[in-house]
Amino acid sequence: MDIKTQFDxxxxxxxxxxxxxxxxxxxxxxxxxxxxxxxxxxxxWAHQDKVILTRDxxxxxxxxxxxxxxxxxxxxxxxxxxxxxxxxxxxVNSVQxxxxxxxxxxxxxxxxxxxxxxxxxGADGRIVFYQCYVKPEYGHY
Length: 141
Prior knowledge:
Layout: H1 3-14, E1 16-28, E2 32-33, E3 38-39, E4 45-58, H2 61-64, E5 73-78, E6 88-92, H3 100-104, E7 108-121, E8 127-136
Antiparallel strand pairs: 1-4, 1-6, 2-3, 4-5, 5-8, 6-7, 7-8
């Protein structure tokens, strides 16, 4: 069994679904304020939300190697979801068996911004999955 198949199996057994918010940096949203250059009542950049399957865990500064402080969360994301820095992972209050539409409309529990990404490669050198380091986001997301 190759590592990608093993990773997919782990996600199916132990993963959970979250909202992945992909920002179109440079494309202003309707909340963009040209005076402050921030979002007022929402995100400043246009975005798209997608439900993805992921696995999370705690890390420590000694194990991350990415200058992260203790308690930083790590999310493991499939290669086809192609995460990028400054996108958000939104944990929601929903039932595990909820449909995508129910998850997209669920209340938000935690909003986490991706601060660093560590691609994990298989023996052939191809990226198999991403290890994303996230921090809580408290502003307009």
